[in-house]
Amino acid sequence: MISYRFGPGQTFGQDKFPDIAFGPPKGGGCCGGSADVVSLGNGGTVTFGFSGNLIVDGPGPDFIVFENAFQSTPTTVFAELATVEVSQDGVDWKAYSCKATAAPYDDCAGWHPVLANPETNSIDPTDPAVAGGDAFDLADVGLAFARYVRITDRADMAGPNGNFDLDAVAIANASCP
């Protein structure tokens, strides 16, 4: 973790930060959120640096952001949204277009249930096809690789779609620098 700034509002898990954001996701499955998360608070942000690995643009999604989203009914997802940005150098950032205010939430993080949880199943948290969470492809923002990921709670979202709760970030396509 490189930097963080919590926003006002929710403080859940902040007393366990940064450890609570490291390691694999601990998803609650399709219909239940996880309590192994840290709330970023309204407009809060966290930046991760991957000094031992690079996220590289490979086939399909390259990394996954996990929140504690879950389906409250078969057609309704309890989503708490964040904007995701990536950078090669920690200075110049490319943002995914998280502009939606209603489902489907396009390139926002925080709206797909997290299925991977090493304590309850053997789902690979680095496999975007089965892990759940929100997968991102570097090709969508024109980068061949990224070393940094920044996640920022959508300050314009309030109520049930506010206060992004970070579980984990996983690299699906990695390369050692």
Question: What key attributes describe this structure?
Answer:
mainly beta; Jelly Rolls; five-stranded antiparallel beta sheet; three-stranded antiparallel beta sheet; 15 strands
Q: Can you describe this structure?
A:
The protein is mainly β and 177 residues long. It has a single domain (3-175), classed as Jelly Rolls. It contains no helices and 15 strands. It has strands spanning 3-5, 38-39, 45-49, 54-56, 63-66, 70-73, 76-78, 82-87, 93-95, 134-136, 145-146, 148-153, 165-166, 168-171, 174-175. The strands form five sheets. It has a five-stranded antiparallel beta sheet, with no helix packed on it. It is globular and about 40 Å long. The mean pLDDT is 89.
Reading off the top of the CATH hierarchy, the class is best stated as Mainly Beta
Percent in strands: 25-35%
Which parts are unreliable, with pLDDT below 50 for 5 consecutive residues or more? none
Number of domains: 1
- Helical proportion, percent range: under 10%
Counting H and I runs of at least 4 residues, what is the number of helices? Answer: 0
Secondary-structure-derived class: mainly beta
Strand order of the largest sheet: 1-3-12-8-9
Here the CATH topology equals Jelly Rolls
Q: Looking at the structure, what is the overall shape?
A: globular
**Based on the structure given, which CATH architecture is correct?**
Sandwich
Order of helices and strands: EEEEEEEEEEEEEEE
Task: Name the average pLDDT.
Answer: 89
Distance between the termini: 18 Å
Structure summary, number of beta strands:
15
Q: Largest sheet, if any?
A: 5 strands, antiparallel
Radius of gyration: 15 Å
